[in-house]
Protein backbone atom coordinates (compact mmCIF):
# COMPACT_ATOMS: atom_id res chain seq x y z
CA UNK A 1 0.00 0.00 0.00
CA UNK A 2 1.48 3.35 -1.01
CA UNK A 3 1.75 6.46 1.14
CA UNK A 4 -1.14 8.24 -0.56
CA UNK A 5 -3.48 5.37 0.32
CA UNK A 6 -2.17 5.39 3.88
CA UNK A 7 -2.89 9.11 4.16
CA UNK A 8 -6.37 8.55 2.70
CA UNK A 9 -7.13 5.93 5.34
CA UNK A 10 -5.80 8.23 8.05
CA UNK A 11 -7.98 11.06 6.77
CA UNK A 12 -11.03 8.79 6.77
CA UNK A 13 -10.54 7.68 10.35
CA UNK A 14 -9.83 11.20 11.61
CA UNK A 15 -12.77 12.65 9.70
CA UNK A 16 -15.08 9.91 10.93
CA UNK A 17 -14.15 10.61 14.53
CA UNK A 18 -15.29 14.19 14.06
CA UNK A 19 -18.67 12.89 12.90
CA UNK A 20 -19.02 10.26 15.61
CA UNK A 21 -17.99 12.68 18.34
CA UNK A 22 -20.78 14.98 17.25
CA UNK A 23 -23.41 12.53 18.50
CA UNK A 24 -22.73 11.55 22.08
CA UNK A 25 -24.71 10.60 26.82
CA UNK A 26 -22.70 10.33 33.61
CA UNK A 27 -21.81 6.88 32.20
CA UNK A 28 -18.70 5.13 31.01
CA UNK A 29 -17.33 7.49 28.30
CA UNK A 30 -17.79 5.00 25.48
CA UNK A 31 -21.28 4.01 26.69
CA UNK A 32 -22.16 7.70 26.97
CA UNK A 33 -21.25 8.18 23.33
CA UNK A 34 -23.33 5.18 22.26
CA UNK A 35 -26.35 6.26 24.29
CA UNK A 36 -26.39 9.75 22.90
CA UNK A 37 -26.27 8.58 19.27
CA UNK A 38 -29.78 7.28 19.81
CA UNK A 39 -30.83 10.50 21.50
CA UNK A 40 -29.45 12.53 18.60
CA UNK A 41 -32.08 10.85 16.41
CA UNK A 42 -34.71 12.47 18.62
CA UNK A 43 -33.51 15.96 17.76
CA UNK A 44 -36.40 17.13 15.60
CA UNK A 45 -35.46 20.82 15.78
CA UNK A 46 -32.64 23.00 17.07
CA UNK A 47 -30.57 26.13 16.71
CA UNK A 48 -26.91 25.70 15.88
CA UNK A 49 -23.72 27.72 15.84
CA UNK A 50 -20.56 26.37 14.20
CA UNK A 51 -17.12 27.86 13.76
CA UNK A 52 -14.02 26.61 11.96
CA UNK A 53 -10.72 28.44 12.37
CA UNK A 54 -7.63 27.49 10.37
CA UNK A 55 -4.83 28.41 12.78
CA UNK A 56 -2.02 27.38 10.46
CA UNK A 57 -1.68 25.94 6.98
CA UNK A 58 1.66 25.28 5.34
CA UNK A 59 2.19 23.21 2.20
CA UNK A 60 5.49 22.79 0.38
CA UNK A 61 6.01 20.58 -2.65
CA UNK A 62 7.34 20.68 -6.18
CA UNK A 63 3.94 21.90 -7.37
CA UNK A 64 3.75 24.79 -4.89
CA UNK A 65 7.39 25.89 -5.16
CA UNK A 66 7.63 29.33 -6.74
CA UNK A 67 3.85 29.26 -7.24
CA UNK A 68 2.62 32.73 -6.34
CA UNK A 69 -1.07 31.80 -6.62
CA UNK A 70 -0.62 28.89 -4.18
CA UNK A 71 1.18 31.18 -1.74
CA UNK A 72 -1.66 33.71 -1.91
CA UNK A 73 -4.26 31.02 -1.28
CA UNK A 74 -2.41 29.72 1.79
CA UNK A 75 -1.97 33.26 3.03
CA UNK A 76 -5.71 33.87 2.74
CA UNK A 77 -6.58 30.60 4.46
CA UNK A 78 -4.26 31.09 7.42
CA UNK A 79 -6.41 32.30 10.34
CA UNK A 80 -9.45 32.12 8.06
CA UNK A 81 -12.79 31.68 9.80
CA UNK A 82 -15.93 29.93 8.62
CA UNK A 83 -19.06 30.36 10.71
CA UNK A 84 -22.50 28.84 10.31
CA UNK A 85 -25.52 30.02 12.29
CA UNK A 86 -28.75 28.21 11.60
CA UNK A 87 -32.11 26.79 12.55
CA UNK A 88 -33.49 23.36 11.67
CA UNK A 89 -36.86 21.65 11.98
CA UNK A 90 -37.89 18.24 10.73
CA UNK A 91 -41.63 18.64 10.15
CA UNK A 92 -42.27 20.40 7.88
CA UNK A 93 -38.68 20.16 6.74
CA UNK A 94 -37.06 23.59 6.76
CA UNK A 95 -33.51 24.73 7.39
CA UNK A 96 -31.97 28.14 7.21
CA UNK A 97 -28.27 28.86 7.53
CA UNK A 98 -26.09 31.92 7.33
CA UNK A 99 -22.55 31.05 6.37
CA UNK A 100 -19.92 33.65 7.18
CA UNK A 101 -16.53 33.64 5.45
CA UNK A 102 -13.71 35.75 6.84
CA UNK A 103 -10.42 35.54 4.94
CA UNK A 104 -7.23 37.13 6.24
CA UNK A 105 -3.87 38.02 4.71
CA UNK A 106 -3.06 40.48 1.93
CA UNK A 107 -6.30 39.69 0.09
CA UNK A 108 -8.59 39.76 3.10
CA UNK A 109 -12.35 39.79 2.59
CA UNK A 110 -15.51 38.98 4.52
CA UNK A 111 -19.03 38.16 3.38
CA UNK A 112 -22.13 36.24 4.47
CA UNK A 113 -24.22 33.80 2.45
CA UNK A 114 -27.75 33.11 3.78
CA UNK A 115 -29.36 29.85 2.62
CA UNK A 116 -32.78 28.26 3.01
CA UNK A 117 -33.63 24.63 2.31
CA UNK A 118 -37.02 22.95 2.10
CA UNK A 119 -37.91 19.40 1.10
CA UNK A 120 -37.45 20.09 -2.60
CA UNK A 121 -35.79 23.49 -3.00
CA UNK A 122 -32.60 25.29 -2.02
CA UNK A 123 -32.39 29.08 -1.89
CA UNK A 124 -28.98 30.77 -1.84
CA UNK A 125 -28.66 34.52 -1.40
CA UNK A 126 -26.21 36.01 -3.88
CA UNK A 127 -23.71 38.10 -1.90
CA UNK A 128 -21.65 41.07 -2.95
CA UNK A 129 -18.20 39.54 -3.28
CA UNK A 130 -15.06 41.67 -3.73
CA UNK A 131 -13.27 41.07 -7.04
CA UNK A 132 -16.38 39.39 -8.48
CA UNK A 133 -18.46 42.00 -10.31
CA UNK A 134 -22.14 41.14 -10.31
CA UNK A 135 -25.09 43.09 -11.74
CA UNK A 136 -26.77 45.21 -9.09
CA UNK A 137 -30.16 43.63 -9.74
CA UNK A 138 -28.68 40.18 -9.00
CA UNK A 139 -26.95 40.91 -5.69
CA UNK A 140 -29.10 40.06 -2.65
CA UNK A 141 -31.50 38.01 -4.75
CA UNK A 142 -32.07 34.37 -3.76
CA UNK A 143 -30.96 31.87 -6.40
CA UNK A 144 -33.53 29.07 -6.27
CA UNK A 145 -32.48 25.54 -7.15
CA UNK A 146 -35.29 23.05 -7.69
CA UNK A 147 -33.89 19.63 -6.77
CA UNK A 148 -36.46 17.78 -8.88
CA UNK A 149 -35.71 19.86 -11.99
CA UNK A 150 -31.97 19.51 -11.51
CA UNK A 151 -32.30 15.74 -11.25
CA UNK A 152 -34.38 15.59 -14.43
CA UNK A 153 -31.88 17.76 -16.28
CA UNK A 154 -29.17 15.34 -15.20
CA UNK A 155 -31.13 12.38 -16.51
CA UNK A 156 -31.98 11.01 -13.08
CA UNK A 157 -35.02 10.86 -10.84
CA UNK A 158 -35.19 13.07 -7.78
CA UNK A 159 -35.46 11.05 -4.58
CA UNK A 160 -36.82 13.04 -1.63
CA UNK A 161 -35.15 10.49 0.66
CA UNK A 162 -31.80 12.00 -0.27
CA UNK A 163 -32.80 15.03 1.82
CA UNK A 164 -34.57 13.03 4.56
CA UNK A 165 -32.91 14.26 7.74
CA UNK A 166 -34.55 11.61 9.89
CA UNK A 167 -33.26 8.81 7.70
CA UNK A 168 -29.83 10.46 7.61
CA UNK A 169 -29.79 10.47 11.41
CA UNK A 170 -30.78 6.80 11.42
CA UNK A 171 -27.90 5.98 9.06
CA UNK A 172 -25.51 8.02 11.18
CA UNK A 173 -26.67 6.14 14.27
CA UNK A 174 -26.01 2.72 12.73
CA UNK A 175 -22.60 3.73 11.39
CA UNK A 176 -21.46 5.30 14.64
CA UNK A 177 -22.61 2.38 16.78
CA UNK A 178 -20.61 0.11 14.51
CA UNK A 179 -17.53 2.27 15.05
CA UNK A 180 -18.07 2.39 18.82
CA UNK A 181 -18.14 -1.39 19.02
CA UNK A 182 -14.73 -1.69 17.37
CA UNK A 183 -12.76 0.81 19.44
CA UNK A 184 -11.52 0.14 22.96
CA UNK A 185 -13.22 2.51 25.39
CA UNK A 186 -10.21 2.81 27.71
CA UNK A 187 -7.77 3.63 24.90
CA UNK A 188 -9.75 6.13 22.88
CA UNK A 189 -12.41 7.64 25.20
CA UNK A 190 -12.15 9.42 28.53
CA UNK A 191 -14.07 11.82 30.76
CA UNK A 192 -13.01 15.46 31.01
CA UNK A 193 -13.91 17.55 34.04
CA UNK A 194 -16.58 20.01 32.91
CA UNK A 195 -14.63 22.82 34.62
CA UNK A 196 -11.58 22.04 32.46
CA UNK A 197 -13.43 21.71 29.15
CA UNK A 198 -13.57 25.46 28.34
CA UNK A 199 -17.28 25.30 27.61
CA UNK A 200 -18.84 28.51 26.29
CA UNK A 201 -21.32 30.46 28.38
CA UNK A 202 -24.78 28.95 28.25
CA UNK A 203 -23.65 25.32 27.83
CA UNK A 204 -24.78 23.34 30.87
CA UNK A 205 -23.15 19.91 30.62
CA UNK A 206 -23.41 16.99 33.00
CA UNK A 207 -20.56 15.14 31.26
CA UNK A 208 -17.80 15.85 28.75
CA UNK A 209 -16.35 12.94 26.76
CA UNK A 210 -13.10 13.15 24.83
CA UNK A 211 -12.04 11.05 21.84
CA UNK A 212 -8.28 11.21 21.40
CA UNK A 213 -5.86 9.97 18.73
CA UNK A 214 -2.10 10.15 19.31
CA UNK A 215 1.07 9.09 17.56
CA UNK A 216 1.01 5.97 19.74
CA UNK A 217 -2.42 4.72 18.68
CA UNK A 218 -3.01 6.19 15.20
CA UNK A 219 -1.71 3.10 13.37
CA UNK A 220 -3.91 0.82 15.43
CA UNK A 221 -6.90 3.14 14.98
CA UNK A 222 -6.46 3.11 11.21
CA UNK A 223 -6.09 -0.70 11.12
CA UNK A 224 -9.26 -1.14 13.16
CA UNK A 225 -11.13 1.14 10.80
CA UNK A 226 -9.90 -0.61 7.63
CA UNK A 227 -10.02 -4.22 8.78
CA UNK A 228 -12.94 -4.28 11.22
CA UNK A 229 -15.22 -1.26 10.93
CA UNK A 230 -15.20 -0.44 7.21
CA UNK A 231 -16.53 -3.84 6.00
CA UNK A 232 -19.46 -3.53 8.41
CA UNK A 233 -20.11 0.06 7.35
CA UNK A 234 -20.27 -1.01 3.71
CA UNK A 235 -22.88 -3.61 4.67
CA UNK A 236 -24.94 -0.84 6.26
CA UNK A 237 -24.65 1.36 3.16
CA UNK A 238 -25.73 -1.58 1.02
CA UNK A 239 -29.22 -1.51 2.53
CA UNK A 240 -31.76 -0.26 -0.01
CA UNK A 241 -33.02 2.61 2.15
CA UNK A 242 -29.50 3.98 2.60
CA UNK A 243 -27.87 3.10 -0.71
CA UNK A 244 -30.20 5.33 -2.71
CA UNK A 245 -29.99 8.12 -0.14
CA UNK A 246 -26.19 8.37 -0.38
CA UNK A 247 -26.26 8.00 -4.16
CA UNK A 248 -24.37 4.71 -4.46
CA UNK A 249 -25.21 1.76 -6.68
CA UNK A 250 -25.18 -1.84 -5.53
CA UNK A 251 -22.35 -2.51 -7.97
CA UNK A 252 -20.21 0.28 -6.51
CA UNK A 253 -20.62 -1.05 -2.98
CA UNK A 254 -20.00 -4.65 -4.08
CA UNK A 255 -16.81 -3.56 -5.85
CA UNK A 256 -15.64 -1.68 -2.75
CA UNK A 257 -16.24 -4.75 -0.60
CA UNK A 258 -14.45 -6.93 -3.14
CA UNK A 259 -11.45 -4.61 -3.26
CA UNK A 260 -11.34 -4.53 0.51
CA UNK A 261 -11.55 -8.30 0.93
CA UNK A 262 -8.90 -8.93 -1.70
CA UNK A 263 -6.47 -6.42 -0.24
CA UNK A 264 -3.27 -7.89 1.10
CA UNK A 265 -3.45 -7.40 4.86
CA UNK A 266 0.33 -7.53 5.17
CA UNK A 267 0.62 -4.78 2.57
CA UNK A 268 -2.00 -2.69 4.35
CA UNK A 269 -0.23 -3.14 7.66
CA UNK A 270 3.12 -2.25 6.11
CA UNK A 271 1.70 0.90 4.55
CA UNK A 272 0.05 2.02 7.76
CA UNK A 273 3.26 1.31 9.65
CA UNK A 274 5.05 3.74 7.34
CA UNK A 275 2.86 6.52 8.71
CA UNK A 276 5.27 6.98 11.61
CA UNK A 277 7.98 7.98 9.13
CA UNK A 278 6.15 11.05 7.88
CA UNK A 279 3.17 11.73 10.14
CA UNK A 280 3.24 13.60 13.43
CA UNK A 281 0.10 14.20 15.46
CA UNK A 282 0.73 17.13 17.77
CA UNK A 283 -2.88 17.03 18.89
CA UNK A 284 -6.10 15.42 17.72
CA UNK A 285 -8.82 15.55 20.35
CA UNK A 286 -12.58 16.03 20.27
CA UNK A 287 -14.61 16.99 23.33
CA UNK A 288 -18.37 16.47 23.38
CA UNK A 289 -20.52 18.03 26.09
CA UNK A 290 -23.70 16.12 27.00
CA UNK A 291 -26.54 18.02 28.64
CA UNK A 292 -28.97 16.84 31.32
CA UNK A 293 -31.35 15.49 28.68
CA UNK A 294 -28.54 13.39 27.16
CA UNK A 295 -28.28 15.50 24.00
CA UNK A 296 -24.90 16.51 22.54
CA UNK A 297 -25.08 20.25 23.18
CA UNK A 298 -21.52 21.25 22.29
CA UNK A 299 -18.48 19.82 20.50
CA UNK A 300 -14.99 21.18 20.13
CA UNK A 301 -12.16 19.65 18.10
CA UNK A 302 -8.49 20.59 18.06
CA UNK A 303 -6.48 19.22 15.14
CA UNK A 304 -2.74 19.80 14.74
CA UNK A 305 -0.91 17.44 12.39
CA UNK A 306 2.24 17.46 10.28
CA UNK A 307 3.10 15.27 7.28
CA UNK A 308 6.65 15.15 5.92
CA UNK A 309 7.30 12.64 3.15
CA UNK A 310 10.99 11.66 3.25
CA UNK A 311 10.96 10.50 -0.37
CA UNK A 312 9.09 13.28 -2.20
CA UNK A 313 10.02 15.98 0.32
CA UNK A 314 6.39 17.09 0.29
CA UNK A 315 5.51 18.74 3.59
CA UNK A 316 2.21 19.81 5.09
CA UNK A 317 1.20 21.32 8.41
CA UNK A 318 -2.40 21.89 9.43
CA UNK A 319 -3.71 23.32 12.68
CA UNK A 320 -7.42 24.04 13.06
CA UNK A 321 -10.20 24.28 15.62
CA UNK A 322 -13.85 23.33 15.12
CA UNK A 323 -16.74 24.19 17.45
CA UNK A 324 -20.42 23.21 17.22
CA UNK A 325 -23.12 24.32 19.64
CA UNK A 326 -26.77 23.24 19.72
CA UNK A 327 -29.57 24.92 21.66
CA UNK A 328 -33.37 25.03 21.83
CA UNK A 329 -33.40 21.32 21.04
CA UNK A 330 -36.92 20.07 20.15
CA UNK A 331 -38.41 23.49 20.82
CA UNK A 332 -40.52 25.58 18.47
CA UNK A 333 -38.09 27.36 16.17
CA UNK A 334 -38.17 30.92 14.85
CA UNK A 335 -37.04 31.35 11.26
CA UNK A 336 -35.59 34.80 10.66
CA UNK A 337 -35.31 34.51 6.86
CA UNK A 338 -38.32 32.35 6.05
CA UNK A 339 -39.16 31.15 2.55
CA UNK A 340 -38.03 33.87 0.09
CA UNK A 341 -40.88 35.61 -1.72
CA UNK A 342 -41.26 35.46 -5.48
CA UNK A 343 -39.98 39.01 -5.95
CA UNK A 344 -36.78 38.17 -4.11
CA UNK A 345 -36.04 35.02 -6.12
CA UNK A 346 -34.05 34.49 -9.31
CA UNK A 347 -33.81 31.24 -11.27
CA UNK A 348 -30.65 29.75 -12.73
CA UNK A 349 -31.81 30.64 -16.25
CA UNK A 350 -32.43 34.25 -15.24
CA UNK A 351 -29.02 34.42 -13.58
CA UNK A 352 -27.37 33.12 -16.75
CA UNK A 353 -29.12 35.78 -18.81
CA UNK A 354 -28.08 38.53 -16.40
CA UNK A 355 -24.46 37.38 -16.35
CA UNK A 356 -24.24 36.78 -20.09
CA UNK A 357 -20.80 35.74 -21.29
CA UNK A 358 -19.28 36.45 -17.88
CA UNK A 359 -21.29 33.53 -16.42
Short note summarizing the structure:
This protein is α+β, with helices and mostly antiparallel strands. The chain contains 12 helices and 12 strands.
Describe this structure in words.
The structure is a single chain. With 359 residues, the chain is an alpha+beta fold. It has one domain (3-358). Helices cover 36% and strands 29% of the residues. It has helices at residues 3-21, 29-40, 68-77, 147-153, 165-182, 185-188, 218-237, 240-243, 250-262, 265-273, 275-278, 348-355, and strands spanning 45-60, 81-89, 94-103, 109-117, 121-125, 142-146, 189-192, 207-212, 279-290, 296-308, 315-327, 345-347. The chain has a 12-stranded mixed sheet with strand order 7-8-9-10-11-1-2-3-4-5-6-12. A hairpin with a 6-residue loop joins strand 10 and strand 11 (315-327). Helix 2 runs antiparallel to helix 5, helix 5 (165-182) crosses helix 7 and helix 7 crosses helix 10 (265-273).
Characteristics of this structure?
359 residues; 12 helices; 12 strands; 36% helix
What is the helix/strand order? HHEHEEEEEHHHEEHHHHHEEEEH
Q: How many discrete structural domains?
A: 1
Low-confidence stretches: 18-25
Strands side by side in the biggest sheet: 7-8-9-10-11-1-2-3-4-5-6-12
Q: What is the averaged pLDDT score?
A: 80
Shape: globular
Strand content: 25-35%
Radius of gyration, CA atoms, in whole angstroms: 22 Å
Number of strands: 12
Level of helix content? 25-40%
What summary fits the major beta sheet?
12 strands, mixed
- In whole angstroms, the N-to-C terminal distance is 43 Å
Number of H/I helices: 12
